[in-house]
Specification:
Distance between the termini: 50 Å
Largest sheet: 5 strands, mixed
Order of helices and strands: EEEHEHEHHHHHHHHEEEEHHH
Helix content: 40-55%
Radius of gyration: 26 Å
Strand order of the largest sheet: 3-2-1-4-5
């Protein structure tokens, strides 16, 4: 009879604390090793039976998943926000490892997806592009802050353009401030150049995937948005339907209800009152929400989505709700055509 063992790992930069329990929940081994590939592999190889391993999502998760997966029967990278048992009782590395192992044995962990699907290079390219985009925005905000702090109106993008920089420097007047602004302009040019290089690399990586040809048929999804979708989602088969995809994109409407049932003539019946809405879900992927919100905004003036959007507003829906509905529609279409590998048919837009 195969013996199953459950390993909970509490991972830190210097050390990894592990606890192994058996099928009855009894602790059979404990270990503290350096957080290095060789030491962790040696510990796993020293265990017998069918091994199941879990650790929480974090900066080490992708690396650990890659080195441990070939050595064990199952690896679950769990979502720390769902591990309420970890937060109860005394807090220590050993206690956390034990609680993780126990939750793994009980099947009470919520897993975070860590499949590869051949998108590893693209994922890194997307992360690099997004990081440099954030750096550009920070420098641009610093530049405008210098003018706003001196009561100088600097709306629009003219303040960043090379041909207008001399006159903006002259408007500051203060030599030390001008010297600082020149450095910020130099930093902006440098980071912008790196960002453009990262964008080209990201799009090149995306075009090598078969999904790119399918998704580029959807209007409002340009090369950058498609690259981010493929790099973040990796596989559309992670999501059974659009109703699992919407929360991941931050487009799911949260509802609250109470006293949902009543007894009528001795039979249980659902009450007629509607559930109250509580806005959109808070736990979501930031990059995907930005992609689909941007695509929806462009879709309001781009066919074939423009007609669909105008139909929503004509029916009395508020523009912001119509844009949300449009974003959900584009996300649902993206998932459907990616899964099926078929062409986007605009005539089916209403039916999607």
């Amino acid at each position: 009879m195969t013996k199953h063992k459950y390993v909970g790992m509490d991972v830190h930069s210097a050390t990894t604390v592990s606890e192994v329990i058996n099928e009855q929940g009894k602790t059979v081994a404990r270990s503290i090793v350096e957080t290095k590939a060789a030491e962790i592999k040696d510990f796993i190889r020293g265990l017998t039976g069918t091994i199941h391993v879990t650790f929480e999502e974090g900066v080490h998760a992708a690396w650990l998943h890659e080195i441990i997966k070939p050595l064990v029967a199952e690896v679950i990278v769990c979502d720390p926000r769902h591990n309420k048992l970890i937060q109860s009782g005394n807090k220590s590395d050993q206690n956390d490892a034990h609680k993780l192992a126990e939750l793994l044995r009980l099947g009470s962990l919520k897993a975070v997806y860590h499949g590869d699907c051949g998108t590893r290079k693209l994922r890194e390219a997307v992360r690099g592009y997004n990081a440099l985009t954030g750096d550009c925005l920070r420098v641009m905000n610093r530049i405008k802050a210098m003018f706003r702090g001196r009561g100088i109106d600097c709306g629009g993008t003219e303040v960043y353009r090379v041909i207008h920089r001399e006159q903006w420097l002259d408007r500051l007047g203060d030599p030390p401030a001008k010297a600082r602004l020149e450095l910020l302009y130099e930093q902006l040019d440098s980071v912008s150049g790196l960002r453009e290089k990262a964008r080209r690399e990201m799009v090149t990586q995306a075009r090598s995937h078969s999904a790119y040809k399918v998704l580029k048929q959807i209007k409002t999804l340009g090369p950058v948005r498609i690259a981010e979708i493929i790099g973040v989602v990796r596989s559309p088969f992670r999501f059974r339907t659009k109703r699992q995809f919407w929360p991941y994109c931050g487009l799911a409407v949260r509802t609250a209800s109470s006293a949902d049932f009543e007894i009528v003539n001795g039979k249980v019946r659902r009450t007629a009152k509607r559930a109250a809405t509580r806005g959109l879900n808070h736990n979501y992927n930031r990059e995907l929400k930005k992609v689909f919100k941007g695509a929806a905004l462009l879709a309001t003036v781009t066919e074939p989505f423009k007609q669909y959007y105008e139909g929503l507003t004509a029916s009395g829906m508020k523009p912001e709700m119509a844009r949300l509905t449009l974003a959900r529609k584009i996300a649902a279409i993206t998932l459907a055509v990616w899964k099926k590998g078929e062409s986007f048919d605009a005539s089916k837009l209403i039916k999607e």
